[in-house]
Amino acid sequence: MDAYEAVFTALAHPVRRRILLTMNFEGGSMSAGAIAEMFEHAWPTTTRHVQVLESAGLLRHERQGRSRVYHIERKRLELVRDWLDWFSKVPY
Amino acid sequence: MDAYEAVFTALAHPVRRRILLTMNFEGGSMSAGAIAEMFEHAWPTTTRHVQVLESAGLLRHERQGRSRVYHIERKRLELVRDWLDWFSKVPY
DNA sequence: CCACTATTTAGCGTGTATGCTAAATGTCAG
DNA sequence: CTGACATTTAGCATACACGCTAAATAGTGG
After folding, report:
1. Chain B nearest C-alpha distance from A85 (Å)
2. What pTM was computed for the model?
């Protein structure tokens, strides 16, 4: 699965977009628990969404004591912008 | 289904992204047949991909004789850029 | 070590996406 | 009007995404 594929697939689900937006708004980092609390979903459901984001390179995580802190990878989102740029360049 | 949902879902499939890129490269318009020829898929498969793009507002079509010509809606792609812009604005 | 907290992994059900083939629709050419 | 062309609609199979619950893992505090 190439990078575009992974990133666009990850962004396709509203829950995953909301995770990114909220994390960004919160400064770029949130614990797994804080992320899970945003939703009425069962925790494992959110865990999987987070994993999709992470394997797309849009998040990474770090252990802090007994909790896991996820960090947003803003650079990775640039991939989307790069893709969009093709449509601004007028073809010849 | 809101606009973001529709657009991001439409962009999630590689075939659909390729349709958009190729149409853009070709100047913004292509007949249904020309689009279908890009792929080894059966025509109806491509037809459905095109419909997903159209119902997301990323394409529109027009009849021209016995063929249908699809046009890319570049403006609609700006929605994605708008969404991405949230990540450039540093939160306070 | 035990109990508790934080979170993931495993495994299952269901609905939707995506591929196919066959049939229908619409348009033009003679 | 008829036949051929261009394309879609209908309907079916299969795979995967996404929800759930139950169990496992990892770290902390006493």
Report:
1. 10
2. 0.94
